[in-house]
Amino acid sequence: MKNELTTPLSGTPYYVNTGIIKAIDLNGYRFSVGEISYERFDDQNFQYIISPFWDLITYLPVEIFQGIPGINLTLKKEHYYRVNMTPAFIRIRTPSPSREDLWDLLEEVHLDYYDRFEWLLRSEKRCGDDNLIVVRKRPPRSFDNTSDLNDIQPGDQLNLNKMYDVSTKNSELIYSIYRALMSGAKIYIRSELRFLTQPERESMLYLLREMLEYNDHYSVIRQKEGIRLAKAKGKYHGRKRIPVDPLLLKRTEHEFRQGQLSEKDAMNVLNIHSRSTFYRRLKEVAPV
Question: Could you tell me the residue ranges of all domains in the chain?
Fold first, then answer.
């Protein structure tokens, strides 16, 4: 049976707005995981199109990317359509038309009309349940250094003399090369007068991902061994709980839930630097 909610509309849209979905790791680094477009048609129909970047998602660890809410990625589709409906991915991170402070939120991003998708592109808001944001897709650009890896989008060009130019610190070199490859940009090697080939990218990404996972695994083992030895010497008492004023926590929780504070601002107010700790403390005030 034909499903009208997932069957793409025919014809040419009169309005198109497109963003790049990015996952953010614990260090604040951004990884492009897909593209999302909003299209409107003359007959008042509209559709959203979500297109995962499968060539990048394949090499992302689950700690960084757990999927796109409302989208069944196990189907491995090139495009997912949501016709005449707002997909869950958009709905859970944008204000509804009935929200009391709606016009205040629109004014914050200099919007004088209600457009959920445009608001999301201007605000780059995250949902409390995931680490995804949406940034506006722009025309392709050329980059001559890696200081802007967070801003690079698939289709851009990254020019390097050598692959190791991505970082001057040995401790950051592996992850920096990984991020450059995962940016989705075409990588031009000046010293060889050529672009990095897709088979080369895939081989390097596979190897780098394995190295990063090994490093993470080994770090956990070393940490556990250190804790075990400290306990044996009676020197380990666990990590100290971050002190937070109860009244400040309650007020911040209320302002955050009402959209008056962003996640980042709320964490700064409470002097909490971990998202998991932040949401644990919020549950102490208002369990969900």
Answer: 15-136, 142-232, 246-285
Handedness of CA 65, 66, 67, 69 (dihedral sign): negative
Tell me the pTM: 0.73
The full DSSP string for 156-203 is: -EEEESSGGGG-S-HHHHHHHHHHHHHT--EEEEGGGTEEPPHHHHHH
**In sequence order, what are the residues at sequence separation of 6 or more whose Cβ sits closer than 8 angstroms to the Cβ of residue 16?**
37, 38, 39, 40
Q: Which pLDDT belongs to residue 263?
A: 83
Query: Is the domain defined by 142-232 classed in CATH 3.40.50?
Result: yes
In tens, the pLDDT along 80-132 reads 999 999 999 999 999 999 999 999 999 999 999 999 999 999 998 887 678 89
What are the phi and psi torsion angles at 16 (to 5°)?
-135, 135
Strand order from edge to edge, sheet including 194-195: 142-143, 157-160, 186-189, 194-195
Alpha-carbon gap, residue 162 to 141, rounded angstroms: 20
Whole-number Å distance between alpha carbons of 132 and 67: 9
Collapse the DSSP code of 231 into the 3-class scheme (helix H, G, I; strand E, B; otherwise coil) and give the result: helix
